Amino acid sequence: MKRLFTLCATLSLSFASTGWAQDVPAEYQQVLTTLGKQGDYKANVLKVNIPRSDLNVTVANVKTPTPFGFGGWVAMTKGTGAMDVMMGDLVLTQDEVNPVMSALLDNGIDVTAVHNHFFWEEPRVFYMHVHGHGKPADLARKVKPALDLIGKGTSRPPAPTAPAAAPPPTIDTAKIAQIVGTQGEQTGAVYKITIGRDDLKLTEMGAPINARMGLNTWAAFVGTNDKAAVAGDVAMLASEVQPVLRTLRKNGIDVVAIHHHMTGTQPTIYFLHYWGTGPAEQLATAFKAALGELGKTAKTTAAKH
Description:
Helix content: 25-40%
Strand order of the largest sheet: 1-2-5-6-9-7
Number of domains: 2
Shape: globular
Structural class: alpha+beta
Radius of gyration: 20 Å
Order of helices and strands: HHEEEEEEHEEEHHEEEEEEHEEHH
CATH class of the largest domain: Alpha Beta
CATH topology of the largest domain: Alpha-Beta Plaits
Distance between the termini: 52 Å
Number of strands: 17
Strand content: 25-35%
């Protein structure tokens, strides 16, 4: 009976996942082929994965797997006038930043931000946000020269020929999800919770800028229940920045960076990157407290009506 229940549960999850995913349109299949990358199509967004699995990164001497915050991406979605909007976040070593930037600019792709997400990381890692409009095939052709430069640097430590298998998760992820109030996804040793900011109703060229296009808040957990690390990103309105800052610091979480990822948006969106270590439940509670500072304006307005 137990085996039958497990099988049924597995099938249910499989069907649910299949129902959420969408077939990749032919023009987006061509994008993946042109770039030579893998990706998926959900919520009307093609997301192309550019993970830096070639890097072995430590943060404050803590080993951090690729899904902890080193997975680059570009995403496309339909706008008005048969044009796509493309946004992305490329994970680069310091020797890659300027060659990749030149390749983007020379091919008509905008660079909207370059910044750090961590302190004390080895090797140094930077994040470059990109933006473009056009037909999917043209955007793929324009961004490909830059993507082809990633991982080709000579000053990086060599990647291992056979990466070790990720250890089984040792964090009580059900407890973390209960504290935060949102389920996450397990990738190897990393448990990541992503929460969109659909309340902001951000659009560009008629295309909704949703969580898969980069408008989201997230937290990634790794380690054990007693000794864990968390890193993440909080998407905020200007009025939310200071309350979130105060909340994170009061909960012992280090703030690493505050900046924008996109230019020309209305309203302006700010992104805050953070890092912390400690018991997993304590870190989840800190993240939940920061979430509590988001969307208060909308909630207050709704309460008055």
